[in-house]
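Need a sequence for this fold. Nothing fancy.
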């Protein structure tokens, strides 16, 4: 399986410094980052937490489609949002204090309880969820 990469160039200190993160593998672009916009108003900049949210939501959507396919099911659509929260860490500094996932899918042929189990399996086997297992991940999954 391939690896993917991104690069960040940073100048200055934490509070007044700034950086640019470049998506090298996809050539998608370069995006500004800074700590004040990370901890406050994004002001058009991205953050590590937003990038993690994008990775987690897209990974889980793909993984759920695979779990469904293994059961000979296919959703009309799957919508996944991930809210990644930055908070103070015990002992100082910061940590990702939680990830709240909201998952909705239009899927015929299953009950709400069956779907909840399929979504739980998808979340537990999702590569991003596994990588982020050091934080609390909550899942709100329902049929649309």
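Here you go.
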């Amino acid at each position: 399986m391939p690896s993917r990469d991104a690069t960040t160039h940073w100048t200055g200190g934490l509070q007044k410094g700034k950086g640019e993160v470049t998506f090298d593998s996809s050539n998608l672009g370069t995006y500004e980052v800074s700590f004040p916009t990370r901890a406050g108003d994004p002001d058009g900049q991205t953050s590590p937490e937003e990038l993690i949210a994008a990775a987690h939501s897209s990974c889980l959507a793909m993984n759920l489609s695979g779990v469904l396919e293994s059961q000979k099911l296919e959703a009309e659509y799957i919508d996944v949002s991930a809210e990644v929260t930055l908070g103070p860490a015990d002992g100082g500094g910061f940590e990702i204090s939680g990830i709240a996932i909201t998952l909705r899918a239009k899927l015929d042929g299953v009950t709400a309880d069956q779907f909840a189990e399929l979504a739980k399996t998808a979340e537990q086997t999702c590569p991003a969820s596994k990588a982020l297992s050091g934080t609390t991940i909550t899942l709100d999954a329902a049929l649309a």
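For context: The longest strand covers residues 94-106.
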